[in-house]
Amino acid sequence: MNVFIRYLWIVLIFSFFSPAHAQETLTLCSADSPPWTIQNSSSPTDIEGLAVDIMYELFDRAHTEVQMVALPFKRCLANTQSGELDGCFMTIKNAERETYAEFTDSYLTIPTYAYYSLKKFDQFEWDSWEDLKPYRLGVQRGFKYGRAFTDALKSMPFKIVEVSDVSEGVGMLFLDRIDLMLTNEFRYEYMIRQHPAYEGKLAHALKPIGIGQVYIAISKNSPHVSIVPKLNEIIANMKSDGSLQKIVHPTPRP
């Protein structure tokens, strides 16, 4: 039954995003990935999150209607490649994807850090990958930590412990089952909002594990592909006027 319901939703989505609507509305997809894209119910269009808020502001400034949908990431990319949807609103850029999509400039920079319990370390810093070898590293299952970390995994005997999400990893820090939890600052801040008891009990090393860039990919088969330069201009304006920063960090940071 659940499979049927999911299938029905996808059929309805593609019915709504038919060619009759294509010239009126830009339709973009992303995976359900808190805090950027959060699917609230079984409906794939019932979404919110930081990236969703950015898209609404961005396309409002572009005077273009946008509809967003949460799909499994591989399906989102496949629908972008085919042009069934106009694009993906949260993805990294690589050579393969550039063959079928035009990419905007990066609209979001995501640093990943090694977080630790202040109960275990007064302060923790690292300089080289070698420095991390003695420690048990919590990593989120299925999450990418950047090319440098991926390359280091091939040659370094890291003590890797997979966790399902950041809150599980943080819990393992306090149970002394891992020494460091690798995550980015946005997922960490989202976890703190969900679990305020952890507030003030953790810190992160100053050096990032990696820094990722996030883009919008517009299908080369989309009738809206020519909008990319306009989106780039608006992204630059949103960075310079502080509106992007206000969306991703709505309260002043210490």
From TrEMBL:
PANTHER family: ABC TRANSPORTER SUBSTRATE-BINDING PROTEIN (PTHR35936:SF25), MEMBRANE-BOUND LYTIC MUREIN TRANSGLYCOSYLASE F (PTHR35936). Residues 1-22 form the signal peptide. SUPFAM superfamilies: Periplasmic binding protein-like II. Transmembrane segments: none annotated. It holds the Pfam family SBP_bac_3. Residues 25-250 form the Solute-binding protein family 3/N-terminal domain. Keywords: Signal. InterPro entries: Solute-binding_3/MltF_N (IPR001638). This is Transporter substrate-binding domain-containing protein. It comes from the Bacteria. The lineage of its organism: Bacteria, Pseudomonadati, Thermodesulfobacteriota, Desulfovibrionia, Desulfovibrionales. It comes from Pseudodesulfovibrio cashew.
